[in-house]
């Protein structure tokens, strides 16, 4: 009986961690190219150059585009987030300690997933909106929009912009970002406060964007194909009973990595956050 109860506890805990990670763990994983179930310590993303169309004569040979091909290798790293669940403490608390720790572990790994993607974005330096002495503005947004267009970044619904919450508030204070006269009734703010579509791009506020010592926050506008995320193992949970502690040790773990594939597909927008 004791063994079957323990197995039920473990299965339920694993399900709760997985569901928590899928629900709220990562904001950015679905905004980039992803390879799952990677075998080995690294994987390779393919990068293809631009093709050029040309004419041919009657009965002539179809011209070959001679696309350039290159690869970007992404190395996977292993990450862990563990904690103890005391058996008798569960009986004494008014909260579900198991669910709290399951959420905490899943969220920690989700933040790590986003951190990997943001670190990859931060290596881009081709396109920069560098008026770092000012906050977020429509002028900066339009400049970044121009840079994406000039780089022939596809406007196919797969563009994403992640901004800090300070920049999100600044955008919500502008008519162009919030007024139905500009964005239409379906894209008004507060309808989906955690994301908003503007200029064909999904804008997402995020708390994990890098900020330097002078208070300048880096925000990123990018196409999905510009960043690659690889997963050798999605979130897994290992639960072990330790009789000497009268507690379960819950270990959440994953193996993931991320890399910049095409710097032309990313625009860095620098924004001042100093008062």
TrEMBL record:
Protein name, per record: Phage major capsid protein
Top-level lineage group: Bacteria
One Pfam family cited in the UniProt record for this chain: Phage_capsid_2
